[in-house]
Predict the structure.
Amino acid sequence: MKAWLSKLNIDLSAAPSSPEELARTVLASVSPDFRCRIETVPALEESFRIRNDPDGSFTVSGGGTGVLYGAFALIRSVFSGKELPDSLESAPRYPLRMINCWDNMDGSVERGYSGSSLFFEAGAFHYDPLRMRELGCFMASVGLNVLCINNVNVHFPAQLLLEDYLPEAAALADLFRPFGVRLMFSVDFSQPMRHGIPTADPLDPAVQSWWNETAARVYRAIPDLAGFLVKADSEGRPGPFTYGRNHADGANMLARAVAPYGGKIVWRCFVYNCRQDWRDTKTDRPMAAWEHYSPLDGQFADNVILQVKHGPFDFQVREPLSPLLLGMKHTNLAMELQLAQEYTGHQIDIYTMIPMWKELFDELPEDHIMSVAAVSNLGRDDNYTGHPLAAVNFFTYGLLAWNPQTDAADAVTEWIRLTYHFAPEDERALASLLLSSRRTYEKYTAPLGIGWMVSPHDHYGPNPSGYEYDLWGTYHKANRDAVGIDRTASGTGYLLQYPEAYQHKYADPETCPDLYLLFYHRLPYSFRMKDGRTLIQRIYDDHFEGYEETKAMAEILRSLPFPEPDRNVILSRMDRQLYDAKEWCDIINTFFRRLSGADDTHGRTIYD
Ligand code: GCV
């Protein structure tokens, strides 16, 4: 992460006073003969224009933060050798471009793979101001503008809203402001009950008053706080259901409290039955969010945003786009992505996400969602992301959140150029490795859209039946004849939650895209795929290929001139990935061979 900040040579030892001042510093860092004027045009707000004048100088115009984004866009182009047109105008596609940290006040990070919290330790704020400015700079450099600093699972002590902690929270907000970054806090729906109110019922006037007063106090300290993020009635968190209320009741009550200050309530839709009986064949977990929220479409206040995980399950390697993102037409929506590699290799395995995100954005109708959020992959490790190559996910997320049309290969190449000094052929080799890494990981882990074959709890490494007899609603139901869940009209009916054209694409196993086949269909191992292979042969082939591709990745990485300490970390993590890819390949193939009894037509080793 830091490589390109040091390339820019921006002095962050002192805090910039405003985005404009930071924009000037950023541009001054390029070189003494680099000539660039800044023109602040408040009406442009976050947007910017860059003009390349005939005398070789540049003019960057923008609103308060627009000039900053313009300055960064310009130097990103300069440093990555990209040609700039004579004039360029750019506006962010989504007004809120958020990073959600799952940091706890004890210093731990839920699903964190890069060390402990950047913000907290032992129940209190504890941070290095320089690192905060670096983080602000990373965010601003790719146009990210909201930082939620604490975990959606709000563990106590969670005093962020209390008088004692607000001055420190306000000081942190001050640090981020010049970077165009506004803070957000996760709040616990039952918080009033810790302050003498006997209930958290959203329709109880005492509850509303408590939140009104709390919002007033918080906004006095941090007038530009972006708002509150809420996980309610989800995986044991408290919420409106306890009081027989729905989620519009809950979200709108909080929305009323923050509305006078321009605050937003970002309300997560990750609601499902996490105490399911695996014997129950009626309940299908991916259906839950739509069942809860679609009847409420149009009932949420204007300053509520429903934040929906990109797929109906939970950040698996491959999931369809959540039906809520297509069907909630009268509600503000944010799509939630996850940079933290919870199910995607713990920042040990290389997993570059932009190809996956592009698939998601491409499926979203124009103008359908108004914001994006991503669960952070940062922590206190020196390099911020644990694996140096995981930084590409943070960087490219920002570029896509600004402009979802951004080309994946261009974005990855830009990151490489800003991070390493590689010859063109090395740069191409790394770009192609990163861009194919998600598909490789998918091949050796999750067959054709099933997912969930991971070790329970920590979600790293293979365990084909790990989630099969559990409470979480995550079953593949593989037996000796067949595998997968029928989610069409003849099965659980999940597919009916989608618009007709979408249903049409996936309903028939003969035409359903292969990579979603077992998400939507239950099929015999002898099922003939479009390319003539049997389903079981395809499963074997994918897993062997995934392992072979990982071996090839390791060779390429060894040949590339990474500087230290990156090289050491990258190669040692690659050794681990290679070992694990073999485990995945052998365990999953053996699992299916034992069930199906089918031989591999190529006679490769699968264990009996
Ligand atoms: C923050 C999954 C993760 C949890 C996470 C949850 C969520 O269940 O395993 O760690 O909790 O998603 O997104 O709320």
About this structure: The pocket of 4-O-methyl-alpha-D-glucopyranuronic acid is lined by residues 102, 110-111, 152-153, 231, 235, 270, 314 (CB under 6 Å).
